[in-house]
C-alpha cells in the first residue's frame, strides 16, 4: 500500500494579546512587550482514502477566557469559528471523526463542544493533570487550574467520555499521523503530532514550543514548562525530527502555510 501523505491547513480560531515573556525561559527573553497571537487549529487532509483529522479546537468563549485566565484581550469573529473555518475546505463539523488534542489548555480543548461526531485523542496523563492540577489555588488567575478550564475537563470526563480515546505514550492514529508524547514540557501530557507530507515531516507542536527561531533553532526553552530539562531535550529532538515545526500561536507560521503545507507547485 502506498504511504499516505497529508496536506495541512491552519485554521484561525481567534486571537489573544499575551506577553512575549511566554516565549523564552526566564530572563532570557529581553522582550517583555505584549503581542497579538493567533489561536490556531490544524486540519489534516489525506491524499488517500483516510478521513480528515483535526488537531486542537480553539477556545469556546472570549469573555470566559479573559475573566478566568486573565491573559489579556481575546477576540472571536464569526469567520473564526470552527464551522466557518471548516467550511472554507468544504467540510462541516459532522465530517470530523477524529480530533487530536495536543493538550487540554482552554485555547486548545475549548472547541470540543462544537464537534458532535468526533472522538478525542488525548494522553491519559494530560487528562489526569487537567482534572487535578498541581498549581496553587491562591493564584488570582486561572480559576485554580491555570490555563485549564474546568468546564472543558468536566465535559471530557462526563458528557464526551464515550468518545475520549486515551493514549499512553506514542501512537499512530492514522497512516502517516503519529502522536508523540513530550511529558512534562508545556504540560504534563503534551503531545506533538508528526504528520507525513510530500515535503517532509511536519510536527504540530501545540505549545511545546511557541517561537520556532527562539525555542527550536536556538534551543531556548519557552517560558512555561513543567520540567526544564525535559523541555530542553524536547527542543533538540524536535529540531532533529521536524522539517516543518508548527506552533499554535505564531502569525508568521499561519500566513506562511495559509494555503496549505506543503505548498503546491505553481502556487
Ligand atoms: Zn495555547
From TrEMBL:
Keyword Zinc: yes
CDD domains: AHL_lactonase_MBL-fold
Membrane-crossing residue ranges in chain numbering: none
Key words of the record: Hydrolase, Metal-binding, Zinc
InterPro entries in alphabetical order: MBL_superfamily_lactonases (IPR051013), Metallo-B-lactamas (IPR001279), RibonucZ/Hydroxyglut_hydro (IPR036866)
Cofactor needs: Zn(2+)
PANTHER family the record matches: METALLO-HYDROLASE RV2300C-RELATED (PTHR42978:SF7), QUORUM-QUENCHING LACTONASE YTNP-RELATED-RELATED (PTHR42978)
The protein's name: Beta-lactamase domain protein
Organism: Sphaerobacter thermophilus (strain ATCC 49802 / DSM 20745 / KCCM 41009 / NCIMB 13125 / S 6022)
